[in-house]
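Human: I would love a firmer grasp of how sequence relates to backbone shape in proteins. Could you go through the record with me and say what the backbone is doing? Here is the record:
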Amino acid sequence: MLTAPAAVVAGTIAMASALTLGVIAGGGAAGGVQALTVATRGASTVTTAGFANPLIALVELVASLVTTLLAVVAPVLAVLGLGVLAVFVFRWIRSGGGPEARAVM
């Protein structure tokens, strides 16, 4: 059962670049996720004699893949969205502004 302490240490190291906040946030987040994983697997083992554990592992795998993809894709989409917004604002300003500006002209 080295996975729980290893997850806490890995989270702490991964977030340590922000020093104290990294230690608290990274270790705490990793510990919370690991505690939830241990509780879920324990409940699965008790209620299904371990037969549902492969399904639980599959759900964990899919959730971690989705979270990882979102962590990579979301910032890229945010930057692209800001770029599109900047183009629209630039065009709006160049065209003379909103309806108020056109009514005066």
In short: Residues 53-94 form the longest helix (42 residues). The chain has a mean pLDDT of 80.
